Amino acid sequence: MSSLFSLAGRTAVVIGGTGELCGAIAEGFAEAGAEVVIVGRDPAKAERRLAAITVAGGKGYFIAADASSKLAIQGVLDEVLTKSGKCDILINGAGVNSATPFLEIEEDEYDRIININTKAVFLACQVFGKYFVENQIPASIINLGSMSGLVPLSRVFTYSLSKAAVHNLSKNLAREWAPLGIRVNTLVPGFFPAEQNKKVLVPERIAKILGHTPAARFGEAKELIGAALLLASNEASSFITGHEMVVDGGYSSMTI
């Protein structure tokens, strides 16, 4: 069974790997045998993550890039192919959030969130997808969605619509590329404390979230690794595509 979830011989590009959630996934992939390429803007955060990967016996490296620039993402792919020779797993996890009331959202804030949360995913799927399609690579693309992309969530209007677009894009690409053996899935975290949502998690909101979560707690970043590993493994999830893999402690099952 261990070989079913092994990523030995695979190369995984983790965009947003300097963050808490995708950083944990990057470590998990490295421990499963993959060479991990962390893509982000903060070299210091990347170095700490790579140090943990090395201690665990894994291997990887960092590429600094603006995920919302197609030229930059093409540069990432080119560098990965030069250094690693191939890529067969892509994770799109860069993200930003804001709790600005709807009627007060300025255009520049809207554009910033859409560019990072939606446009960046679109561009990476386009750049890496072309490489996968042209080279007939049975790749796995995992896009980070959100519970707010599935059900309405107060106070994060632009974030929610940006993530809903990611869910829709993932399903459309899954349908398009399934005949080629390229799988596209959405990993959907429930409530996990992360850098992008710390300003939103005031005491009153925390109480509401926990009261709506049967597990009665927030998730821990490491609890996303198993689901991500399942979706990344061609052996374990060869017939899984277009799926929204929810990891939420029961939040989406709760009514009253």
Automatic annotation (TrEMBL):
Regions that span the bilayer: none
GO molecular function (one): oxidoreductase activity
Keyword NADP on entry: yes
Key word Oxidoreductase present: yes
UniProtKB keywords: NADP, Oxidoreductase
Pfam families on file: adh_short_C2
Superkingdom per UniProt: Bacteria
InterPro entries: NAD(P)-bd_dom_sf (IPR036291), SDR_fam (IPR002347), Sec_Metab_Biosynth_SDR (IPR052178)
Family classification: Belongs to the short-chain dehydrogenases/reductases (SDR) family.
Record-given protein name: SDR family oxidoreductase
Species: Phragmitibacter flavus
